[in-house]
Amino acid sequence: MKGILYLLIILGCSHQTPEFVPRQDAVLAKMTRAEKYKILRTYRFLQTLSSNSPGRMPFQEGYLPGIPRLGIPSIEFVGDDRINRHPSRDEKTLKLGFVNLIRDFEKTQVFGNFDEAPQVDSIMGPDRLEEFRKNTLTKELKDLDLFLVLEGSQGRVQKYVCAQYRESDEFNCVAARLETFMKQLGIAEDYDNLLAGESLTSVQLDTLVKEVLSNMNELKIL
Q1: Which of 54, 86, 103, 205 shows the smallest number of beta carbons within 10 Å?
Q2: How far apart are CA 17 and CA 133, in angstroms?
Q3: In 3-state terms, the chain is what percent helix, strand and coil (to 5)?
């Protein structure tokens, strides 16, 4: 009788549903220390891009390598002068667009790389997804995967990263939150030095990397 009871317990345990592990946690567990710093440097570089005045991107083309073994995509920067742009999502290389949409009395804009683009008072944000979608089909945003986007006016600006998926006509945006985590960890002022010297504590390192991975997961690019 004890043997049968023991067998039933074993069989019951073997059919338990595996505990769900969020994608970002699963990837983080597989990352080496060097890979963690690599992804933080990439994200920091994107942050410096979004700190430039609208329409004043420092360059037109560039490339940031990803981590293929973990499914983390590379990022290719595409300037406004590229005539033929083709998506490369299948290759895990996402195209980041620098484009302006200054065209109406509202002075709406996405980050661009145009010499004649003035700084504007109001910048297009994720709340205008339908307008974004129209432009992703035929205009400046066509064939791009990622966008650095700002929203705000009168000195108060919110930063976003947005991703589009032509296959499913889906558009997702995530608000930048890494700076908030830096402040919570008490390293906001020293972050660049800690990053350059790879001297973050293990807790600080994992907290920040997990947030970057979480953003990628929310954008569905991880």
Answers
A1: 86
A2: 39
A3: 40, 20, 40
